[in-house]
Design goal:
The termini are far apart. By secondary structure, the protein is mostly helical.
Length: 269
């Protein structure tokens, strides 16, 4: 009887702990969904608040790497959304730097979590070329870090759609004689969409893992067709509306990008 009583007591005592863990996980999943919606809605205040709401979970051994990722994501997208507004560039830079630290922490906790390195690569690129052009030493440090992050991601997940999305802007601004150019960048975005349509990358089975990418690739193809040397406004409009069909409340696409395409149609050619 003593043995079975001990087993019963252990099971009773462990049940509340498991319930607490499940409750914490559900809270984090809920906050992640709110972060992604706030990003699309361009709600920078909400992104800052939700970044803070994940703080209680950063020490959770089962979720720490993903919690760090989504904290970084909130600030990364807060900075990107801020670039579309008249926001203080110092605040934008601070958000990116803190986001980079979160992504680095995420990757340190789980070195196989390639998405943390992909997001860090984006932050490094923006910090290097948008904020440190007058600080050569810091810029070279960031470029070296970006080179290693790109190498790691290329080796681990070359067809990750989010990796292709992050690479695109760098390729866009790289001269064709150095392997870049507008066409090459758009090919990356199209490759990302092809990968998704052919299910070459397994869907995330863990709701804490990122699965975004398709709307962003469509958006970048819309922007690229609008801003390429020989604009294709029909293609730009089509891609923008495809992105909006997936995310009807996307502030940037609905309120900024599509009006830019419409304005471009009015200009004499």
């Amino acid at each position: 009887m003593g043995k079975w009583l001990a087993i019963l007591l252990i099971s009773v005592m462990s049940a509340p702990a498991a319930q607490v863990a499940d409750s914490a996980r559900e809270q984090v999943i809920k906050i992640i969904a709110q972060i992604q919606r706030a990003d699309y809605e361009g709600d920078r205040a909400a992104l800052k608040r939700l970044y803070g709401e994940l703080q209680p979970f950063v020490k959770d051994q089962g979720m720490a790497s993903r919690v760090r990722y989504w904290r970084g994501f909130a600030l990364w997208r807060r900075a990107i959304n801020g670039s579309n507004e008249s926001t203080d560039t110092k605040e934008w830079e601070d958000d990116l730097q803190q986001a980079l630290e979160e992504f680095n922490e995420s990757a340190a906790i789980d070195p196989d979590f390639v998405d943390a390195k992909i997001a860090a690569l984006s932050c490094v690129g923006i910090l290097a070329y948008s904020f440190n052009q007058k600080n050569p030493e810091r810029q070279q440090e960031l470029i070296a870090q970006g080179r290693q992050l790109k190498k790691d991601a290329q080796a681990a997940a070359p067809l990750n759609p989010r990796f292709l999305w992050v690479l695109g802007p760098n390729v866009w601004y790289t001269p064709p004689e150095h392997g870049g150019g507008q066409e090459k960048a758009m090919e990356l975005y199209e490759k990302g969409l092809q990968v998704l349509s052919e299910n070459k990358v397994p869907a995330a089975s863990n709701p804490l893992d990122p699965s975004w990418g398709e709307p962003e690739l469509l958006m970048n193809l819309a922007w690229s067709n609008l801003n390429r040397t020989a604009p294709d406004l029909d293609a730009a409009d089509q891609y923008a509306h495809c992105a909006l069909a997936l995310v009807p409340y996307w502030h940037y696409v609905k309120g900024i990008l599509i009006p830019q395409i419409q304005d471009a149609r009015k200009k004499p050619h």
